[in-house]
Specification:
Radius of gyration: 14 Å
CATH superfamily: Electron Transport, Fmn-binding Protein, Chain A
Number of helices: 4
Structural class: alpha+beta
Largest sheet: 7 strands, antiparallel
Distance between the termini: 35 Å
Order of helices and strands: HEEEEHEEHHE
Strand order of the largest sheet: 2-1-5-6-7-4-3
Shape: globular
CATH class: Mainly Beta
CATH architecture: Roll
Helix content: 25-40%
Strand content: 25-35%
CATH topology: Pnp Oxidase, Chain A
Length: about 150
């Protein structure tokens, strides 16, 4: 990921957080964006990541693409260690349970297609840049049956 794009993402996330969600839900390329709040698995500190998402029924879908990097984003290890986390969509905060899915999951291809379409094919391009399978993380609102 270019350093300019990384800086744009950081500014976007800062605006989203500091506006209380008033600004940021659809700023970046017009894509719907949520804030994923996790707890650092090593530090125990609160972490926030702005991520493009898709919807699959009641579930929210995000990808652990890390811009096609060979390494997954840090937030993926955090949700694996502690799946109970929170998302913010606009001004609304929702407790969720995160579940990474991979190509061996029967719903993976369908879910990947949903988030790839929302992100205008960028995830397919990212997948071509890395050998690791890019997980689709399913964020299910707490209390919803699975």
């Amino acid at each position: 990921m270019s350093s300019v794009f990384a800086k744009v993402l950081k500014v976007h996330q800062w605006v989203y957080e500091n506006s209380g969600g008033w600004v940021g839900h659809r700023v970046l390329f017009g894509n719907p964006t949520l804030l994923l709040r996790t707890v650092g698995r090593k530090t125990g500190q609160a972490r926030t990541s702005a991520l493009t998402y898709g919807r699959d029924g009641a579930d929210y879908l995000v990808t652990a693409s890390n811009g096609g990097s060979p390494r997954p984003p840090g937030w993926l290890a955090n949700v694996k260690a502690k799946p109970e986390c929170e998302i913010q969509i606009g001004r609304r905060k929702v407790p969720v349970v995160a579940r990474p899915t991979y190509p061996d999951d029967s719903d993976y291809a369908r879910r990947f297609a949903i988030v790839d379409k929302v992100n205008k094919g960028r995830y397919s391009a990212y997948q071509k840049m890395t050998k690791r399978p890019i997980p689709v993380v399913v964020l299910t609102p707490a209390g919803q049956s699975r």
